[in-house]
């Protein structure tokens, strides 16, 4: 093993039922290095981290550490004892204990807690890291950001050799992020190896030395930060080479929006509590547009704000030119907006109800629960849409959970179409479904638009967006950073906009 | 404005556990003073207080075990059954098998430990709902105690009765009766055992790594795991200790009543839960205090004494009063916690 190499993961395999989450992934970390682990969601970053910290047991491959050679890590305790500390995105501290206890519990050999010593030590550490918390304070009484800092303080104090920061910055503001970076650089100079997982490209280029990119559970490559410009990084994460794709535009006959139509929906300075910056947005009658950006860039949060699914903090909204107030999803539905959520398992379907009941659910909400449909009417509705959308089900009475993902998606789509919305929002309608159904859905979107419906379409697959949308809103780090239409709608242009500033592709 | 900020910061800095403990102690003293004011005489005598302890030493011990599992975020409703089983087993051993005191104590501890061992294993390592596990445990214990011996009988063993009638005088707390004879105040052996266990458990929960792990696991199981705590072992140990305490409580119970019956300690598990909750332990886990539990038991039995002292000795009046007090406690607790939460925001 290389002298300065403190961690070596070779050929890591991990399979979950139905998914190969990691396939032969290698990862190397050197002393005093800040190493970014990048990839879209589902690329395997979290799985790799959890294998390293003993939350998951790997199915294959080896993990070696400097000094100890190959190790087996079966639990978070093992990892801690080997000098691997982790700060997770979600707070993994105990809210009912004090700040000091959270920093010291589960460590050390002694069986007795020396409160005085612990509190003095904790106070000293908190002060040295400039964390605004008292050692004796109950953790729950601290803000989320402070809790995150406490978690980092704990990790720092363990004198770890490897520190893993799994999206630690998502709950911190800019100043706090600066403080964290200062801390990271300090640790780096002390020879700690840091694995930094984040969605924020700016942050990667600010502090990291190396980048390892994963995609679909496989290693794409390890790069020196200076050798990998942003555009290249984005291309690697999305799995597209810049040059191959420069002329994909036009291939699928992307839908060109009507210029003349009036605005169906218009939002000014809209902001929700999900952490996105205020944004303006409008869509014309019969137009298909999209939000694009990396995962975590805030595309879903934008449409959720439009639909009222997150708490709207400020901004004004107009529907057909008239100001309306959308505070809750039901308000949006009454205005004629329909929203197909990203996670259909959580937000969309009621698994045990039949296909028919799932289809008429939204309509039922609008007409009121005390005015039931006749069975014949519901049957007619359901059958009409099952045929129209080509939903493959044994009968309208089959429980929806027994359908395939793509067909479940169509049922949800049918549900919303039944309302005859003026404005339809589709958040990742094609994720995790087969290619045939994908094409079906894309075709349907274009068809609906030609009938005069306005559609917002979000997809992780850029070429899908290019095929369907006539205008793209580009997002980075929870901010709208550009809008592309007409000739600008190319893979290269999108990627360079996502990557920001530096590249002129 | 400034003063208010300062006040709220002190209010919010106190941990939930200590805040609830303070509420419990204040309410207990208010209630006891109320009892003295309204029923006078009886409650003024220290012996009245010591009798509350004498009558409830077994409940104090089971409630301590209950608090422990509740702090860990679990529950054990078998403790009443275990007390009954242990007391019958020991009584039968002492009387029908010429057993000695030492052996009977071993039986009590053994049965309790075995219970904790099995239930703890099922809950912690097989991840079965603790409520279901201990419900089964309760039925099993009640059934077993009937099998061991059905009829009611008083333990005749001399050594045992000597132990049972041992009174430990509390100096300076006695009173003079109408004839002018000084009657010393006393407690039974069980009280000493109970208070000793309270102190031990208090120390364990406050100052040992294991004790703090109970709180961590109850606060957030997932986080506790990530912080490097062996969650399964912690849960297992909580149930083991609770079982052991139930075993000891069974013996203490027998020492107090001196008789065996399959109906012994009926509903004690519910009183233990009620005491823990009054004492500021939260069913959701992570919050609680053994001293609070002690005061919880005292509060509960003070209520019972007030009710029977008022001539409403019937069981249903006691039940209704306890129910209302429990509600009142919980309302006060949740109002204070909500206030605290608001002060934080």
Task: Itemize the secondary structure elements and their pairings.
The complex is a heterodimer of chains A (505) and B (345).
Chain A: E1 5-16, E2 19-30, E3 34-38, H1 45-52, E4 60-65, E5 69-71, H2 76-81, E6 84-87, H3 99-104, H4 115-128, H5 144-157, E7 162-166, H6 174-189, E8 193-197, H7 201-207, E9 210-215, E10 218-224, H8 230-238, E11 263-272, E12 279-284, E13 288-292, H9 299-307, E14 312-319, E15 322-324, H10 329-334, E16 337-340, H11 344-348, H12 355-367, H13 375-388, H14 405-417, E17 423-427, H15 435-450, E18 454-458, H16 462-468, E19 471-476, E20 479-485, H17 491-499
Chain B: H1 2-13, H2 16-39, H3 41-44, H4 46-71, H5 79-96, H6 101-125, H7 130-148, E1 153-154, H8 158-164, E2 167-176, E3 182-188, H9 189-207, H10 209-219, H11 221-226, H12 231-257, E4 259-260, H13 268-278, H14 290-309, H15 315-344
Antiparallel strand pairs in B: 1-4, 2-3
């Amino acid at each position: 093993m290389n002298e300065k190499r403190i961690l070596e993961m070779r050929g890591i395999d991990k399979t979950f039922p139905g998914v190969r989450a990691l396939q032969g992934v290698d990862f190397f970390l050197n002393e005093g290095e800040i190493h970014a682990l990048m990839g879209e969601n589902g690329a395997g970053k979290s799985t790799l981290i959890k294998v390293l910290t003993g939350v998951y047991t790997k199915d294959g491959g080896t993990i070696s550490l400097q000094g100890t050679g190959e190790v087996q890590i079966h639990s978070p305790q093992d990892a801690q004892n080997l000098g691997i500390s982790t700060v997770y995105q979600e707070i993994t501290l105990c809210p009912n204990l004090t700040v000091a206890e959270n920093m010291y519990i589960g460590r050390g050999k002694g069986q007795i807690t020396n409160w005085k010593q612990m509190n003095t030590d904790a106070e000293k550490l908190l002060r040295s890291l400039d964390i605004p918390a008292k050692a004796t304070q109950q953790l729950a009484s601290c803000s989320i950001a402070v809790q995150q800092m406490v978690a980092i303080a704990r990790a720092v104090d363990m004198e770890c050799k490897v520190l893993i920061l799994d999206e630690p910055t998502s709950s911190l503001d800019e100043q706090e992020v600066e403080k964290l970076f200062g801390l990271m650089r300090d640790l780096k100079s002390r020879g700690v190896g840091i694995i930094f997982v984040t969605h924020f490209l700016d942050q990667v280029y600010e502090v990291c030395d190396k980048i390892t990119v994963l995609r679909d559970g496989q290693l794409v490559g390890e790069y020196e930060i200076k050798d990998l410009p942003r555009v290249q990084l984005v291309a690697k994460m999305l799995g597209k080479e810049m040059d191959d794709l420069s002329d994909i535009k036009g291939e699928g006959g992307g839908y060109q929006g009507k210029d003349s139509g009036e605005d169906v929906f218009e939002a000014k300075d809209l902001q929700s509590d999900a952490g996105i910056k205020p944004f303006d947005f409008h869509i014309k009658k019969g137009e298909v547009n999209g939000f694009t950006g990396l995962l975590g860039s805030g595309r879903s949060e934008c449409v959720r704000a439009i639909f009222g699914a997150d708490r709207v903090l400020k901004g004004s909204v107009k529907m057909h030119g008239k100001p309306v107030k959308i505070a809750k999803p039901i308000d949006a539905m009454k205005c004629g907006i329909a929203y197909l959520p990203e996670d259909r398992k959580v937000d969309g379907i009621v698994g045990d109800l039949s296909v028919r009941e799932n289809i008429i659910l939204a309509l039922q909400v609008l007409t009121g629960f005390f005015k039931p449909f006749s069975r014949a009417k519901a049957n007619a509705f359901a059958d009409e849409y099952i045929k129209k959308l080509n939903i493959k089900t044994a009968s309208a009475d089959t429980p929806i959970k027994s359908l395939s993902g793509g067909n479940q998606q169509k049922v949800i789509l049918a549900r919303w179409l039944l309302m005859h919305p003026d404005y339809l929002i589709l958040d990742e309608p094609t994720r995790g479904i087969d290619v045939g159904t994908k094409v079906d859905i894309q075709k349907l979107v274009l068809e609906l638009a030609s009938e005069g419906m306005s559609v917002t379409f979000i997809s992780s697959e850029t070429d899908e967006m290019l095929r369907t949308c006539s205008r793209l809103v580009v997002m980075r780090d929870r901010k709208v950073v550009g809008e592309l239409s007409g000739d600008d709608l190319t893979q290269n242009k999108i990627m360079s906009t996502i990557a920001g500033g530096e590249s002129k592709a | 404005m400034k003063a208010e900020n300062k006040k709220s910061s002190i209010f919010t800095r106190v941990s939930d556990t200590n805040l609830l403990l303070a509420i419990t102690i204040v309410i207990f003293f208010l209630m006891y003073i109320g009892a003295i004011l309204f029923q006078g005489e009886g409650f003024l005598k220290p012996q009245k207080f010591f009798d509350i302890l004498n009558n409830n030493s077994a409940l104090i011990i089971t409630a301590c075990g209950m608090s422990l599992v509740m702090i860990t975020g679990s529950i054990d409703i078998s403790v009443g059954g275990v007390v009954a089983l242990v007391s019958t087993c020991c009584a039968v051993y002492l009387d029908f098998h010429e057993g000695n005191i030492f052996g009977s104590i071993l039986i009590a501890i053994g049965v309790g430990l075995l219970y904790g061992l099995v239930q703890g294993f099922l809950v912690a390592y097989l991840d079965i709902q603790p409520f279901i596990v201990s419900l089964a445990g309760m039925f099993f214990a009640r059934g077993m105690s009937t099998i061991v011996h059905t009829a009611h009988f008083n333990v005749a063993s001399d050594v045992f009765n000597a132990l049972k009638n041992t009174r430990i005088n509390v100096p300076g707390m006695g009173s003079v009766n109408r004839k002018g004879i000084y009657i010393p105040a006393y407690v039974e052996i069980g009280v000493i055992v109970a208070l000793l266990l309270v102190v031990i458990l208090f120390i364990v929960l406050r100052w040992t790594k294991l004790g703090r792990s109970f709180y961590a696991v109850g606060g957030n199981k997932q986080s506790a795991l990530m912080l490097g705590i062996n969650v399964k072992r912690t849960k297992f140990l909580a149930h083991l200790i609770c079982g052991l305490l139930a075993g000891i409580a069974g013996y203490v119970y027998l020492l107090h009543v001196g008789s065996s019956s399959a109906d012994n300690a009926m509903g004690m598990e519910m009183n233990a839960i009620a005491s823990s909750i009054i004492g500021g332990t939260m069913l959701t886990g992570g919050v609680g205090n053994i001293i609070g539990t002690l005061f919880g038991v005292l509060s509960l039995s003070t209520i019972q004494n007030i009710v029977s002292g008022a001539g409403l000795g019937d069981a249903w009046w006691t039940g209704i009063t306890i129910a209302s007090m429990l509600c009142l406690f919980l309302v006060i607790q949740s109002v204070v916690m909500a206030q605290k939460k608001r002060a934080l925001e």
